[in-house]
Each structure stands twice: as C-alpha cells, then as structure tokens.
Amino acid sequence: MSLNIEELARANVRALTPYQSARRLGGNGDVWLNANEFPLPVPFELSQQTLNRYPECQPKIVIERYAAYAGLTPEQVLVSRGADEGIELLMRAFCEPGKDAILFCPPTYGMYSVSAETIGIEYRTVAALDDWQLNLPAIADQLDGVKVVYMCSPNNPTGNLINQDDIRALLAMTAGKALVVADEAYIEFCPDASLAGWLQEFPHLVILRTLSKAFALAGLRCGFTLANPPVIDLLMKVIAPYPLATPVADVAGQALSEQGIALMRQHVAELNANRAWLFEQLPQISVVQQVFPSETNYILARFTDSPKVFKTLWDQGIILRDQNKNPGLAGCLRISIGTREECERLIAALQALSVEQA
C-alpha cells in the first residue's frame, strides 16, 4: 500500500492557507508598493567573520542597544527572527493547543491567525468598530479561555492608532487572565504612541517590534519582543537555540548604533513627507473614493473599481497590496510609501486611468 504523505500531516495543516506575503504573491514590478518596506537599500559592511562558531542565542550588543533605544533594561528584551517569530513564541509559551485561545480584531495583520492554526490553537475574532477602534464590550464577552490578545497599533492594513484609553481598558479587563500583545511594527513613524513606558505598570503587557520597516532591514529578519522579565524568561524556554545568524546580529548591532538610529529617523522624516504628499494628491483623482488617515509608511485607499486599478498598475510594474478580502475593506488597496519618484509614478498612473474612465 503506497503511503499518502498528505494523510500523514495534521488535519489543520492540510486545511491551512499559508500567509500570502508580498513576495509569495509575485509580480514583475519595478515600483514595489506592496510590502511596507523602505524603498532603498541601506549600506552595511559585515564585520563578523567567525562563521565557524554558533552565534549567541541573544547577542549581547543587539540586546543592550535595543534596550537603550526602547528605554528599557536588557532583561526586558528578546530578539528573534522578525516580529513574526515573537508572535508564535508567545502562543507556544502561553497557549495549550486544543484548550486555550487567542483573540484579535480584524481587519488586522494576517499572521496571528496563521500562527494559531499552525500550532493548533483556537483563534477568536472580534471585528473592529467602523473607525477601526476596539469593540471593548464584544471583547469582554469573548475572553473566557483566551490567553493572548493581539492588538496592532498602528494597525496593519488600516494605518490607524488604537485609542490609548481603550488599551488601558483592555489591560484592565485582561489583568490576571491573559497577555495583551501590542504589535508596534510601525511605531517609528509615530514614536510618541509607543506603549514601552507602560511595561512597569502592566505585568501582562507585551510589545512586538521589528527592524523591517523604518530601519530599512526587511531582508535581515530581525524583530524584538519587549516585556517584563517573567515573560521573557518563559519565551527563552521555547525559542530556538540560535535564532539569529551571526551576520544578522552584526548588521542589527550597527543599525542600532547612534549613527544607525539617526539614519533611521532621517528615513522616517522622508517617508512621512512623501506620505503627506500622497495624502494630498490621492483625493484629487476620480477613481479614488476615500483615503484613510495613516500613522505608518503606507496609506489605505478605497477605489471605485479596485480590481481594475490593481491590475492596470500591476501591468505597468507598480505593485500595490489588495485588501478586498479583509473584513470591511471592500474596494481597498494598500499603498506602501516609496521614494518621491515612485509616489509620482503612482499618481501619474492613477491620473491616466481616471482620464480613461471619464
């Protein structure tokens, strides 16, 4: 009898749709506005040559520099393969498959559900309100058995910050029952909104960070989990022995130097200026129905015929991110902020499309 490999797999994995990352979706563009990356490479030289030795599990210089940058102690910082690994480590450390649940509020980042399904943990969703704020009464009704609540602020793909009074209310209702994980992948674009200063007050608060966005190092796969030492100690029990390759730690340490942080802030100022320019230009185009305010390096917009807009731009090598399948986002496309030239190409293509449809 021949062995059917698929039947050997776990049933939930057989049924799983993998996360559709920007690179998995493909395209042959030269203006990549679909993955919220920084549009230009940043220069780094590798200085570590000892590749015959295993790296440190938690590279000291990376931890110390990130702690200083975030205003925390090294004992409150864990470094991992992107913030995506942090999302998964929290489930592995705190959720029993088949017993515990996580909760999040769509429309939001797609990896929360994919990680839960992969591990075999129930996930519950409480749709955000029309302004994409938390529906606190509905969350309260769903918390029984929930161990981890994920909340993205600024939220991906909508670009809005979550109201801080609501976050305090969420932390109050979960105290002693569940962790609240604030995903701050885009916080460098609105640093005053960070919750890092709240860790002392809330032992069950966890914050996720990354070097992929404002630090322009998406190819590095380096993220951070910020939490109080009891949480970090538990995550250290389930993390891989060598999560960060030596060259990754090398470049991350350089990126978190004084000069590296100054360069990142300069990049943020440039992208925020380009975002402000796009925010002025987009509403003047007839195929654009609505442009949503953003605190990030992307803008969400609703179009009159979003499949046509998406494909027309795709055919011209301008790649956007389709959000139609996300709850409440019919007709929406997400536009990463590129260079000024890329933003101008986008606007010119949309203007040409508007003239065609007039």
From TrEMBL:
PROSITE patterns: AA_TRANSFER_CLASS_2
InterPro entries: Aminotrans_II_pyridoxalP_BS (IPR001917), Aminotransferase_I/II_large (IPR004839), HisP_aminotrans (IPR005861), PyrdxlP-dep_Trfase (IPR015424), PyrdxlP-dep_Trfase_major (IPR015421), PyrdxlP-dep_Trfase_small (IPR015422)
Cofactor(s) needed: pyridoxal 5'-phosphate
Molecular-function GO terms, alphabetical: histidinol-phosphate transaminase activity
Pathway: Amino-acid biosynthesis; L-histidine biosynthesis; L-histidine from 5-phospho-alpha-D-ribose 1-diphosphate: step 7/9
Swiss-Prot/TrEMBL keywords: Amino-acid biosynthesis, Aminotransferase, Histidine biosynthesis, Pyridoxal phosphate, Transferase
Coiled coil: none
Modified residues (N6-(pyridoxal phosphate)lysine): 213
Catalyzed reaction equations: L-histidinol phosphate + 2-oxoglutarate = 3-(imidazol-4-yl)-2-oxopropyl phosphate + L-glutamate
Group of enzyme by EC: transferase
Signal sequence, start to end: none
The enzyme's E.C. designation: 2.6.1.9
Domain Aminotransferase class I/classII large: from-to ranges: 45-350
Pfam families per the UniProt record, alphabetical: Aminotran_1_2 (PF00155)
Protein family: Belongs to the class-II pyridoxal-phosphate-dependent aminotransferase family. Histidinol-phosphate aminotransferase subfamily.
Subunit structure of this chain's protein: Homodimer.
PANTHER family given in the database record: HISTIDINOL-PHOSPHATE AMINOTRANSFERASE, HISTIDINOL-PHOSPHATE AMINOTRANSFERASE-RELATED
The protein, known as: Histidinol-phosphate aminotransferase
Originating species: Pantoea leporis
Lineage: Bacteria, Pseudomonadati, Pseudomonadota, Gammaproteobacteria, Enterobacterales
